[in-house]
Amino acid sequence: MSTITIEALTKRYSRVTALDQLTVDVPEGVCGLVGANGAGKSTLIKILLGLSTPTAGRASVLGYDIASHGPEIRQLVGYMPEHDCLPPDVSAAEFVMHMARISGLPTGAARERTADTLRHVGLMEERYRRMGGYSTGMKQRVKLAQALVHDPKLVFLDEPTNGLDPVGRDEMLDLIRRIHTKFGISVLVTSHLLGELERTSDHVIIIDGGRLLKSRSTGELTSQTHTLILEVLDPAGGADAADRAQASLEASGLGVRRAGELMYVPATDESTFDSIRDTVAHAGLGLVRLQRDRHHIAEIFAENTPEGSQDHVVTG
Ligand SMILES: Nc1ncnc2c1ncn2[C@@H]1O[C@H](COP(=O)(O)OP(=O)(O)OP(=O)(O)O)[C@@H](O)[C@H]1O
Fold first, then answer.
1. 14 with 152, same domain?
2. Residues 248, 205 share a domain
3. What's the pLDDT at 173?
4. Measuring CA to CA, which of 46, 159, 283, 290 is 20 to 30 A from 165?
């Protein structure tokens, strides 16, 4: 089932077309929205929240039309904005409690939800300190907590890993995954870091210049290819194992592409596995690895990205 449907959505600013006839459905679960800086991700989120009006096209969020039901949508959706927006002289506990009260929760429930969400994002210890002294990672966690505090059905997270170091980024990605697995909340998360989405998202939507490039389940995007990846060793300790394996495989009629010690062999059918095993054994070598290669999201993006727009995309 879709949480969001988008039909021919267009947003033109005076000099830029930020969204250009975008049509796509966002399924339940964790959905990654990926694109280089300026691809239109934040513009799309603001339109879906009813905070900005599209130039043309239509969309619905959780069954509500964005043109007529902004307040209903904002009641059911949590929003973590991209940029810093936290008052520095206030503590996380006060701020998240305030956001819970604004969402309409009575004081008791707001206090309970504030404690629960701050615990979930790992900010219990520091919750009474003023946020001006927080690290970037802690600020991102407060922004996430305020998006979750009113128990939404869906959250929009705009670049939640921005400014985080690799450890902080991994922790944030785990938190995002748990929002769905533990609480059943669907997530639309934006990023320009393609590698992040492979393990966090169930589905990935790729946009560029406000246009749709691809919308696929992560499984489909990273599905197995028809290439086998192979690594060998010489039990006698010889250093030329890969060279010898390559020569033997080619003599058996198999095509081999080399990348250092790794060999890539096109598989015609399951019998290719047997041919490789027998050929390698016959050459007196041992198999370290023999498996199907997989697509990576970054490669798929690279195949589709018009020249000149890739330099903003980080594939790490
Ligand atoms: N209020 C505005 N007025 C004019 N142009 C705008 C406005 N907001 C966004 N834009 C332009 O629209 C395009 C899309 O911007 P948007 O912020 O949606 O991209 P993004 O994918 O979220 O990138 P980023 O992560 O850098 O914010 C950009 O060219 C941007 O400069």
1. yes
2. no
3. 94
4. 46
Q: Roughly what angle, to the nearest 10 degrees, separates helices 107-120 and 92-102?
A: 130
**The Cα angle at residue 304 between residues 215 and 205, in degrees rounded to 5:** 20
The tally of domains found in the chain comes to 2
37 lines ligand 1 (CB under 6 A): yes
Name the residue at shortest CA distance from atom 1 of ligand 1.
13
User: Which numbered atom of ligand 1 lies nearest the CA of 207?
Assistant: 21
- How sure is the predictor about 221, in pLDDT bands with cuts at 50, 70 and 90? confident
Instruction: Give yes or no: residues 95 and 134 share one domain.
Output: yes
**Which amino acid residue places its CA nearest to atom 25 of ligand 1?**
37
Q: Which residue type does 176 have?
A: I
Shortest CA distance to 3 belongs to which of 146, 201, 173, 185?
Answer: 185
| Among protein residues, the one whose CA lies closest to atom 8 of ligand 1 | 43
Q: Which of 123-132, 157-166, 208-217, 300-309 is predicted with the least confidence, judged by mean pLDDT?
A: 300-309
Asked if 213 and 229 sit in the same domain, the reply is no
Whether residue 151 sits in one domain with residue 216: yes
For residue 266, what are the domain limits?
224-294
Q: What is the CATH number of the domain that holds 9?
A: 3.40.50.300
**Phi, psi values for residue 52, rounded to 5°:** -145, 145
- What ipTM does this complex have? 0.95
How many whole angstroms from 22 Cα to the centroid of ligand 1? Answer: 15
Q: Are residues 174 and 279 in the same domain?
A: no
pLDDT digits (tens, 9 = 90+) for 234-253: 999 988 999 999 999 999 99
Ligand 1 atom 30: residue of nearest CA: 38
Among 157, 166, 158, 110, CA closest to 137: 166
